[in-house]
Amino acid sequence: MRPRRFPLPSVFILFLTLLACSGGGDDLRIYEQEKVMMGTIMKVKAVAPGGAEDRTRAAFEAAFREISELESELSEWQPASPVSAVNREAGVKSVQVPDAVVTVTQKARKIAETTNGAFDVTFKPIGRLWNVENRAVPPPPDSIRSALSLVDYRAIALDTAKQTLYLKKTGMEIGFGGIAKGYAAWRAGEVLQRHGIRDFIINAGGDLYLSGKKGEWFWRSGIQNPDDVKGRPVFSFDVVSSCGIATSGNYENFFIHEGVRYHHIIDLSTGYPARGVKSVTVFSGDPAKADAYATAFFIMGNKKALQIVAEDPSLAFILIDSKNRIFRSPNLDSFIRER
Asked: Which domain holds residue 145?
């Protein structure tokens, strides 16, 4: 799993006004706004008529309010959040939680079951132990074993009727960092659509939710070269259907010890960083699923990822392994067209 932090204030706005520039199509403009939220930069870009600035501004503000509310509910870094309360009461009692926590827990638990625990929101004890940004050597094996004993999605007790959540083991903690941004992007996209905006990109710290087109053209994106993230992408593509796109890679957060790279995506079956893959990009009509399965597929590898996609064609992926071989799921053309 990959720990993600949500520590920054949601009220800090990098651009207070919408930026407009010429877009494709007659009298269309691209409007953009971004804010620091959920521990990252959340960007919203939309295509709308040139005279729609006030309406678009209102839609953007409503979308950011939605994200802010979700952050207050889903963050494990805010002491007053329901998730923090659940973690404090682990092994003691159940805690009343809002709809968003119920929904994300349901999604996360289903994905954990499908991936046999490769994705597990109870990863936080092992994620905190590794904390590769502040580490120069691997943790001791006994510390890894101790942390892993607290990681088990099957020890999550969710009562959907009473809307309560309980962690069965004292010391357990949940963290939605591997799924919350995708879920927030989807909810923000729903807000934009209710305001009449159909053509947009929501960039949640690198996890994307794309809808519609950029005037006459499809939205375009690409996949970084894991060995040269500042260079040209390994390939580019047009996005031909609305979807979430999320990437997990071993090239962002890591340290090197005795010639071995230790990155931040932990294989929960071993307690050590996953091996064999450099990068996975996942596509799904549900951005939360794309977010979570990007982590899972990185850990599971190509063959097991293909097995899941065969059962669930709402997912597709592109995987680059440690030998720089590129693997594509056979249903990619449902989401993208390579350029």
From this structure: 76-167
